[in-house]
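Worked example 3 (structure in, sequence out).
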C-alpha cells in the first residue's frame, strides 16, 4: 500500500499538500514488508503497532544517523516527500526479504521488516516483486484499552482503510511524534523499546484530538480516502499540553 502523508502545512514541510521545493528533489520511499502466512496471518492491530515501531526502529538506528551506512538515504528521503509503501510476503518471499539490509520487528503475532529508503524507481528486485494488495487483516478479539501513560496512535473512526493503508498511516504518526520530541524523550522512548498502542478513537473524542495540538497526519489522497483526510493523531505523553 503506497502512501504519502501530509499534515498542517508549514514552510518547506515534507508533509505539506501543495507542490513545493521538496517535489523537485529526488523522491524516495521507505519500504515495509509484513509477513502474512496463509495459515497464521497476524492480527490487524498488532500489525499496525509493529509497523509503527518498525519506522521508529529505523529512525533511531545508529546506521541512520551521522555517517551511518543508511544516513544518506534517510536524509534524502526526509528532504523530499515522506512516502511509505507496505507490501506483503510469505514463505520464500519473506526469506528473500530478510536477506536484504534492514531490521525485522516482531510483535505479538506480526513481523514487519523495514528497509532503508530507496528511490521510487530503484526498488531491489526481491521487494519490487512483492504484492501491495492482500493486506486485509482482522482482529480475532477486540483490542484492550490503551495504556494512557504510553504513546497512543489514534486512528480516525470515520475512515475505512485496508490494513496496508492503516499500517503506513500509523508509521506516519509515529514519525511525526518522533520529530516533535527532544533528544532526551527520543532516547527514553528508544531505550524502552518504543512502546505504543494503535487504537481507533471514540468518535466523540476525534474532533478534540485533531485540534489538541498533537501531531496530526493528513493523507494526500492518492489511494482509498479523500485528500486532506485526518488519519492519525499521535498522542505521546511528552507532547500533551497541560
Amino acid at each position: 500500500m503506497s502512501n504519502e502523508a501530509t499534515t498542517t502545512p508549514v514552510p518547506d514541510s515534507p508533509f505539506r499538500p501543495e507542490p513545493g521545493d521538496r517535489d523537485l528533489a529526488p523522491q524516495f520511499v521507505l519500504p515495509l514488508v509484513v509477513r502474512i502466512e496463509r495459515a497464521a496471518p497476524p492480527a490487524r492491530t498488532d500489525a499496525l503497532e509493529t509497523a509503527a515501531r518498525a519506522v521508529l526502529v529505523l529512525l533511531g538506528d545508529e546506521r541512520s544517523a551521522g555517517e551511518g551506512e543508511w544516513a544518506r538515504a534517510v536524509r534524502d528521503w526526509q528532504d523530499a516527500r515522506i512516502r511509505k509503501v507496505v507490501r506483503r510476503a510469505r514463505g520464500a518471499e519473506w526469506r528473500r526479504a530478510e536477506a536484504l539490509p534492514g531490521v525485522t520487528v516482531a510483535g505479538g503475532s506480526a513481523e514487519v521488516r523495514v528497509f532503508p529508503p530507496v528511490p521510487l524507481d530503484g526498488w531491489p528486485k526481491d521487494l519490487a516483486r512483492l504484492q501491495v494488495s492482500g493486506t486485509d487483516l482482522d482482529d480475532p478479539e477486540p483490542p484492550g484499552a490503551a495504556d494512557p501513560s504510553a504513546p497512543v496512535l489514534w486512528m480516525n473512526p470515520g475512515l475505512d482503510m485496508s490494513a496496508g493503508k492503516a499500517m503506513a498511516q500509523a508509521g506516519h504518526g509515529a514519525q511525526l511524534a518522533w520529530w516533535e520530541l527532544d533528544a532526551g524523550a527520543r532516547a527514553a522512548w528508544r531505550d524502552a523499546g518504543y512502546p505504543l498502542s494503535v487504537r481507533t478513537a471514540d468518535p466523540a473524542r476525534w474532533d478534540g484530538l485533531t485540534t489538541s495540538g498533537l501531531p496530526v497526519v493528513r493523507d494526500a489522497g492518492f489511494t482509498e480516502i479523500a485528500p486532506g483526510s485526518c488519519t492519525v493523531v499521535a498522542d505521546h505523553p511528552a507532547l500533551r499540553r497541560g
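Notes: Residues 5-13 have pLDDT under 50 and may be disordered. Helices lie at 44-60, 71-79, 91-98, 125-128, 163-180, 183-191, 203-210.
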